[in-house]
Each structure stands twice: as structure tokens, then as C-alpha cells.
Amino acid sequence: MAREMMYGDAIAAAIIEEMQRDPNVVLYGQNMAMTERDPMLKKFGKDRVRLAPISETAEIGIGIGAAMTGLRPIVELWMSEFLLVAFDQVINEAPKFHYMSGGQVKVPVVLKAGFGFCAGWAGQHSNCIYHTMMGIPGLKVVVPSTPADAKGLMTAAIRDDNPVVYLHPYMLTLDKGEVPEGEYVVPLGVADIKRAGTDVTLVAVGWMVKKAVAAAERLAEEGISAEVVDPRTLAPLDVKTIVESVKKTGRLVLVDQAPRHSSAAAVIAGEVAEHGFEYLRAPVKMVTALDTSVPYSEPMENYILPNENKIIQAVKSVMAHEAVAA
Amino acid sequence: MKKKKEFGKDRLVWMYTQMVRIREFEEAVKRAFIEHPGAIRGHAHLGDGAEASIVGTLSTRRDTDLVMPSYRCHGYPIVLGTPLRKIMAEIFGRKDGLCKGFGGSMHLADPAHHFPGTSGIIGQSIAHATGAALTAQVKKTGQVVFCFFGDGAAKQGVFFESLNMAAVWKLPVVYVLENNQYQAYTHFSLEDANAIAGDPLSKKAEAFSIPGTTVDGTDPLAVYKVAEKAAERARAGKGPSLIESKFYRLSAHGNVITVPPLPTQFPEHEAVAVYGNKAEFAKWKSKDPVVKFRARLTKDRVLIEAGAKRIEDAARAEVKDAVKFALASPLPAPEEALHYVYA
């Protein structure tokens, strides 16, 4: 059974179901559970649902310590940039304990944060910082693009025995989609083909997935068949599924909301260059944000972001490349 | 009120034994840089001088209470019952080490002995210990977490954030600020606002409206008394306390930082090497907690000379065996490095 749900509600559904299933799951963050009327507080009590002070380093560090000793904390951090004030804990503490202890210690903590809020939040609240975390051994990074994935990946993140950074694009919060009811797990580290195609592979992340799918629909009208691959988990990255798609299509366009060199696209392009070079019939093309901070005013904000037209243009350029070569 | 049995003869002898085991172990680590050059890599940090503080605090510990110190971490698992062989083998980077050679001196972990793990980044483990106390509170285990960190760590933001949250949530944690007087190479009087104002460092507790006490960290029984009070408060659900345990690190911060193939060993203490203050070092050396406690126990006839010597000989033999074990243990196979990336 599935029912239509908004993306944001799908995340909440996963958290509620997991908290019902496992008494070791706790949830805390700033500006939540402030009154006794809070529905999560009513449902799970003040031991398991807590208001935290504005102290990201301690919030995350406490999550790590609690995870090391038997809880499965979800730390609600609201915006990915707030991780930056506590980055030692994210990069140099959480992912290290299992390894440094020779496998004795596990750190099953979920760090949940929205990101990429391109709705006039300007330079410091609209960033995509997943690139800084996707190369950290021991850390898992998840970016769901649909309500169903939002639920299934949150469930998997909570059950995973490793620290997981769960990043949800704020721009998808109100998107609706079919979400399976009851237990639903999307395994971490498995990419999803969101649209099948044969001429070109579009690998898109987060908010960009629906833009890539929309671009693919328009390209279909012109006779170009685009496959859209959503990695869903950036670490560990499902390179195999991406390379297999490129093997089929021979062309790769990467769509990413982050600036060029801090994008997941740059990492994926490197992997394909090494593992899929012989399948490529045209150079890889990256459609990313321009190399600026995110500007406040709307026309400028739109200008620096990837969009359907830029994706279509990029696809046409890789298709044209072969025409020249042939 | 008379103290329970804790101050009985057996207890006092146990305390002295643990202090000697720590001291002998740390001395052996220090000697290894000369006797077995290259056996210890990177940076090792010793707890000589901290014995009374460690053992005094842990004397209040109940069976399942957790212990979470900083990277200067050899002494605590020694008291908790981790075999010295496994600790030494870890410091030597061997396959039979406590962490199979993945962690080394700064990252000992032994969850089976209530020692969940240590961080090498100053102060950050204060948050982890606070999180362990959250687990104890949520799961109602009755555990207290003993969180140890240095005077330097008390200048990190994580200290202030963690103590605030522990106080807000009334978490069962005892914070022991080990004021060993040097943050790496910097004397605490140069970087601590309380010290500069002539106040004890325990004054920081006032910022969180929790009890703050400064204690002579060279006296295990004095430390025991304040730690017991803090542990009782934690167990009663009243929240955290801050103890400034003031003693003196008797060795330098760590072995000299050198680039291979240059050899490294422990240098002279910063007091002498950096500040040229031989008098300060001599003054604190004369307050050596192990020597002081031995004198007290023999004077009080808790121990006779021969008994004290038996304890010391046994500790020396145990440490010698640990070194022998570590040297005999193989190095890990290179490809083992790929293990334990993900759980």
C-alpha cells in the first residue's frame, strides 16, 4: 500500500515508525519540543524527544557519545551549514571511532539537515556542502530526491550502524509523491534509475533529479532518450550503476546544485573517467552552479543555478559531439 | 558520618597498587623510546603525576560506570582491568593490541571494560562523555560517566556547550578537569582567565550553576571525597559537577615531534626546557603522588616496607611482561588497513 505524501512528511513518518519500533532511537534539536503540546513529545516522552540548546558541537558530540554507548540518536540540525560550526565532530570524530578502536565501537548516529535553500536565503544558508563529507571514510552521506526515498533512506539511516549525514534539499519539502506505507527501507549505497533511456546518462543529485527528469521529458519530444540516475547515497557511492548506465548510453551529463569543484558531479566524473572511459562517445559534461556564492536577489539566484534549459543544452552538446566525430 | 568500607586497608592497598601500576607502565613507555627505538610511532602522552587523581576518582566508581578521558589515556584502562599486554601492544602498533594497531597511544578503547573510546582532538571527548551520560539517563541504567580532560580542553567551546547541556538535561556525569598545569607547552597561567584573575579553574562551574570544587590532585583520598560527592549527586539525578583536580604532569607533554627517520624520545619537562624554571619542576617532583601516598601508607602502618616493595615488584614484572608480549606480537598485515571502515 502506498499513499501520496509530501517529502517533509515522509521523513517524519520514517522517524516516527522507527521510534515506535526501537526504544533506543532518540531525537533532539534546537527549537523543537518546546511545549507539552508538541506531538512528538506527546508520543514519545521527554526522555526520547528533547529540545537542545544552540550548541551544534555538543549536540553532535553528545549524539556520537550516546551512539557509542547504545542509543541511536537523530540530531536535527535544520540546515547543513550549521554542521560547519561543529565540523570536527562530523569529519574527525564520528567516522573515526569504529576504525580507531579496531572495530570495537559503533557510532549509529543520524545527523539530519536541510540544504540548498535557494529561495532568497542568500550566501550562508543556501549551500551544498555534501562534497566535503562524501570522501570521509566511515561516514555515510544520503541525499533523497523523492518522498518515497526520503522515507526509505531515513529508515535505513536510523538502522545503520555507522554515522549517517542525512541531507534533504529544502526545495523538495512540499513535493508530493507516492510513499509506501509501513516499513519501507531503501538500502544505503544503491543508486536508482529514475528514468530509463538509451542515448545519454544524466546523473543528478537531490533537487536536481526532478529537473533532470523534466529535461529528459522535453528531450524525448525531440527524439533524444535520456536516462536519469539518482545516486541517492553519495557515500558510499554506487559507481557500478552509474558506469553501467554510461556503458549503455555512451554519454554522461552530470547535474549538481553545488559549484563545480565542490560538487558530487566532479567526483563522479573522475570515477567514470577511470572506470568508464572506453564507453564514452563524447566528453563528460557538468551542469553545476556557477562559481559564486548564492546571491540574494532572485534573478541572480536563478542565473547561477542549473535549470532544465542548461541541462538540455548540455545534452545537445554531447549529442552533437558525436555527430562531429562520426 | 564514617565512610563505608572504602577506606579500609584493602581499599587503600588497592589504590596504591593501581597508582604504582600506572606509574610503572608510563615509565616503561618512556623507556621504550630508548630501549626499542622506532617501536612507538607518532605521539605518546603519559599520565605520570596523574595517578592519585585517576585512582582517587575511580575509587568511587561502581561496576558499570563508564570512564571517558582524553588522548592522555593509558592510566584509566589500567585501573579498569584492561590487560597491560594489550595496552602496550597497541602502543607498539601490534596485531594483538587493544585496537589491533588501528589506534595507538592516543586512541585506546575497551568497551568491554567500560572504556568506550578516546579522541585525540583536545576537548572533543567532553561531548562524547556527555552523550554516554545521555544513554545512561534514557536507558535508566544508573551509570555515572567519569569524564576526564585537561586544563587546555577547558578553553575549547565544546567544554562550555557540553557542560551547559549536561546541566540543562541533568545528566549523570562527573567532569574532572585535570589541571596538570600545562596545555601542551603552554603554562595555564598564560591562557586561563580564571587563573589570571587568581581564581581556581573550578570557578567555571558557576557559569552553569553547578557545583565546582578544586581539590589537591596529588592526594587520592582527597580526590576520592570530592569525586564521591559528585558521583552521588549524578546518581541522584541532580546532574553534573565540575572538579578541578590540581596536580603536575611529571613528564613532558609527549615525545619530541620529529620527522622520520630522526629518532624521538621524551624531552625534559616544559618547565625546564621551555621556561627554564628548574625550581618549579623540583617543587612538584617533591610532591610526587606515588611517593607521597607510599609514605603515608607506611607511616599509618597500612603497608610495611616489604609489602610496598612487593606491590612495586609485581607491577614491574607485569609491565616487563607487557613489553615482552608487545615486542613478540606481529605487526598487522598491510591489507588489514581496509577493515573497520564501516561497521
Could you outline the blueprint of secondary structure elements for this entry?
The complex is a heterodimer of chains A (326) and B (343).
Chain A: E1 2-6, H1 7-21, E2 25-29, H2 39-44, E3 49-51, H3 56-68, E4 72-79, H4 81-84, H5 87-93, H6 97-100, E5 110-115, E6 140-142, H7 147-159, E7 164-169, E8 176-180, E9 192-195, E10 200-204, H8 208-221, E11 226-230, E12 233-235, H9 239-249, E13 252-259, H10 264-275, E14 285-289, H11 298-304, H12 308-325
Parallel strand pairs in A: 2-3, 2-4, 4-5, 5-7, 6-7, 10-11, 10-13, 13-14
Antiparallel strand pairs in A: 1-8, 6-12, 9-11
Helix pairs in contact in A: 1-7, 3-5, 8-12, 9-10
Chain B: H1 9-35, H2 51-58, E1 66-68, H3 75-80, H4 84-91, H5 124-138, E2 145-150, H6 157-169, E3 173-179, E4 182-183, E5 186-187, H7 193-196, E6 212-216, H8 220-235, E7 241-246, H9 270-273, H10 278-285, H11 289-299, H12 305-328
Parallel strand pairs in B: 1-2, 2-3, 3-7, 6-7
Antiparallel strand pairs in B: 4-5
Helix pairs in contact in B: 1-2, 1-11, 1-12, 2-8, 4-12, 5-6
